[in-house]
Amino acid sequence: MKVTIFGTGYVGLVTGTCLADMGHHVMCVDIDEQKITNLRNGVIPIYEPGLESLVKTNVANGQLCFTASAEEGVAHAEIQFIAVGTPPDEDGSADLKYVLAVARSIASHMQSHKVIVNKSTVPVGTADKVSALVSQVLAARSSTLGFDVVSNPEFLKEGAAVNDCMKPDRIVIGSQSAHAISVMKELYAPFNRNHDRMIVMDVRSSELTKYAANCMLATKISFMNEMANLAERLGADIEQVRLGIGSDPRIGYHFIYPGCGYGGSCFPKDVQALIQTADSIGFDSAILKAVETINERQKSVLVNRVQQHFGADLHGKTFALWGLSFKPNTDDMREAPARVVMEALWLAGAKVQAFDPEAMEETQRIYGQRADLVLCGTKEAALKDADALIICTEWKNFRAPDFDSLKQTLRHAVIFDGRNLYDPDVVRRYGFTYYAIGRGDSIKTY
Ligand code: UDX
User: Fold this and answer.
1) Tell me, what's the ipTM?
2) Which of 134, 149, 162, 329 lies most in the core, judged by the most C-beta atoms within 10 Å?
3) For the UDP-glucose/GDP-mannose dehydrogenase C-terminal domain, which residue ranges apply (predicted)?
């Protein structure tokens, strides 16, 4: 089948590439001409394992192409995906200007029936807005062309996006049009072998499903962070508690890892957007507000520990910081806890020597040159002359450091671990003071 995808960001590029790899003829459209030129030459704007070679192969074999021309994109296929950004407005609600601009563009150029598929994460009711806009533009053109608007949310995880797209847990389709449903079934048939993963529902339920999924996951994390804060004040070890509760299949082991807060492009934005949606209809979502508050508080836990240990004024102190991206296997620093940590350290007068396996360029781009930030080429270089080590992201490379040389290199044998990477007893045996999340040395009130 022929498919057009508007937006070559994370979701659009991964989806388009996977659809092409399954044999569809995919055209990706973006208004950024430089990005299109780069993509044609195999230069990928994001770091995502497996994506680069897949793009190159499918461009080479003619399954995947890129254009900056919306007109060409609209003419290419009946199926038109909208996969552009929905950045938060000042009040946290999702800004639909890019989604609606694409809808307008499709309506202006279309010469035949279109199935317009919304893949961007959009508030409940957006499909209706897209429909109204397309109808309005067609009416202004005096056109009687038909179209369907489908909601088809994505559930990709950064760092595992290609695999998630190739082997989806579920394919949610929101539509009540028999034609659109059959087109979507044919499109996803290659991803839907062996057992049926397709869940067809009405458009609004599909739109809410995406928010409900991310908010549920964010809730699990904030709940565990709340338990971690209680555990360390009560002399319990959250990692033991995690195993104890995860063994109940009703709870499960997934997404109950405590840490220094969730980040990324989805959870913070989607929780805020659903709070905003609830507020806008006069419903006070107490749970979502608590999830958000707890997460904001959690991002400060590490620096609070640092200041308890070294004092509030950190002038003259240097901290090694391992891990800058919001999670491993990505260079994405959107809403990353490491940013909150770094900025708080700077505010208190400290210097940061940072290392991340992928996010160094991104850090440089965000913060530029500053005297209190040194970007180091290795995790060992970051330790040199540092007072203590702070860990914000659980990259594999950080899991088994040489504790002896770590101790010799740091000025003080202190580790602040925001991801519970080590066994507190082992680290203490090496002579470290070890602050972790919900375990280790902490504020004992018992
Ligand atoms: C998430 C959803 O998982 C995905 O389905 C959706 O489509 C987009 O949002 P992503 O943002 O890529 O994906 O990251 P994810 O792996 O879910 O992690 C999000 C954040 O939660 C990270 O900061 C991570 O460190 C944190 N996290 C995750 C925890 O703190 N504890 C956990 O147990 C799991």
Assistant:
1) 0.91
2) 149
3) 320-424
